[in-house]
Amino acid sequence: xxxxxxxxxxxxxxxxxxxxxxxxxxxxxxxxxxxxxxxxxxxxxxxxxxxxxxxxxxxxxxxxxxxxxxxxxxxxxxxxxxxxxxxxxxxxxxxxxxxxxxxxxxxxxxxxxxxxxxxxxxxxxxxxxxxxxxxxxxxxxxxxxxxxxxxxxxxxxxxxxxxxxxxxxxxxxxxxxxxxxxxxxxxxxxxxxxxxxxxxxxxxxxxxxxxxxxxxxxxxxxxxxxxxxxxxxxxxxxxxxxxxxxxxxxxxxxxxxxxxxxxxxxxxxxxxxxxxxxxxxxxxxxxxxxxxxxxxxxxxxxxxxxxxxxxxxxxxxxxxxxxxxxxxxxxxxxxxxxxxxxxxxxxxxxxxxxxxxxxxxxxxxxxxxxxxxxxxxxxxxxxxxxxxxxxxxxxxxxxxxxxxxxxxxxxxxxxxxxxxxxxxxxxxxxxxxxxxxxxxxxxxxxxxxxxxxxxxxxxxxxxxxxxxxxxxxxxxxxxxxxxxxxxxxxxxxxxxxxxxxxxxxxxxxxxxxxxxxxxxxxxxxxxxxxxxxxxxxxxxxxxxxxxxxxxxxxxxxxxxxxxxxxxxxxxxxxxxxxxxxxxxxxxxxxxxxxxxxxxxxxxxxxxxxxxxxxxxxxxxxxxxxxxxxxxxxxxxxxxxxxxxxxxx
Length: 648
What we know:
Layout: H1 11-21, H2 23-26, H3 33-37, E1 46-48, H4 58-61, E2 69-71, E3 76-85, H5 88-99, H6 104-118, E4 128-135, E5 140-146, H7 186-197, H8 207-215, E6 217-218, H9 221-234, H10 238-244, E7 257-258, H11 261-273, H12 276-279, H13 281-291, H14 305-309, E8 314-316, E9 319-323, E10 326-330, H15 337-348, H16 370-390, H17 405-408, H18 410-417, E11 449-456, E12 462-470, E13 477-479, E14 482-484, E15 520-525, E16 531-539, H19 546-558, H20 564-569, E17 573-574, E18 580-583, H21 600-607, E19 611-613, E20 622-627, E21 630-635, E22 642-647
Parallel strand pairs: 18-19
Antiparallel strand pairs: 1-2, 3-11, 3-21, 3-22, 4-5, 4-12, 5-8, 6-7, 9-10, 10-15, 11-12, 13-14, 15-16, 16-20, 17-18, 20-21
């Protein structure tokens, strides 16, 4: 058994450092002393060793390596604004923006730029994102799509082999080759959202990250663990090796202070000239050259200057569906997250989950009942079955009936719910039958390197943004101080199914790969059925398991009455459309030793036919809830996240 210990020794030093770097933000006009002073992380919980087994292949099957669990975390309460990000430095940068009168859109820009430095294994300007945004003044919900795209020249075999004449697979692997790199989208998306909803200067929102890149910061425990796990792949790239490894090739450890002058220069250009500084000119040329490099035997990608200059973020129609007394709003395609979360919850609406709440939940959320885990996992299997077959980039692959309603209407979901045997698992589910379709099914690679930000501002606006470079450190290509994604791995590398039918999620030039990212906004449902007040903001990293993490949290909040910290701290559980049901063995109330043989929940599920895995999970959930007098929020104890705001 391998134990991974998560000791957060550098948090205090980090916050002292970032506090000095953010003076410009905290002293901006409109900042109150109380507001500025509240943007600090209070001690919250104890980091303990995770007892879950870390079997060979764990990193391949889980979104990121596990780094433990902070027990006994308390929720944070604020008066008017709140932010939760996966790293306390990024949380504080965003909080200072909110304290100085910025909007949720302003806070996202500051947080994303800092996350690219302190969490480069998960996110950065070389990747993509999905954003759900609520504008309180207009009561509108916008879904922003900043997903990466395949180069225009990409063929359906682009990830499968070098060329139609040379069937050698991409080297040294698809993941670490130039073929995996998609045209980044997060900057265009953030600029679109900022143009629509921002109040503060675009340029000023980059100051915290630029100062941090110039002055340096200590490597966090999680970043250090990821560097160590990825050292071999990072060593193949000259820039990655110089930045993340010591001269002798060993990984830079926790607490090691690093600076990123190349990133400071890049961010300064984008701050001054906007995203055009990234998508055209010298930075764009460097991206093209790095993607096309053949050093260390890497198979080159085919991104061109025209691909970069032509990238456009999209504003799409949010998927909003009823769930009991609330309305859930999530991302449409090319993310499958909104569809699959909505379908799962719509199936679960046919069951009395409130009667299956955990008994006496503690600060860590308590242990869910086996019957609840069974019903939720079965509903997820049914929802994933439809997702796998029908959901892809909507600009290339229309949904059945050309509408989400075909898969999400209540009569259909009631029929799906009737397929659930309350006493025994179905193992795997068949998709719904909507007649002959020209597209087959295909698997999706998990997004290993992903992060999430939830935020509400003093004006009542809110944002949930999930942001990613896909695998840990993306493609392991570093250019001008930032990591390039390997997002194209979310496509199916094989273009056809066993029956020869083309797969919905196959590679095509200009196409966006399917995602599972599930940023979610929840509203009260008024008596007339219309959308009422904003009630919750949530989301998580976690690859294709994101859907399960978000469903678990929504059920905890809406059916079981857990507070946001309890809901995200509770054991991670759920299933994709396979016989395996996951129960997060990192949770202190799950007995994961001996493959869970001594855990009552695991034993009950296995008696119902579930193949239970207790491999530790690595969610990065956050949840914010409106309550009388302000907001209450929680951050996932499995990562380094923090909640900050004008505390009360």
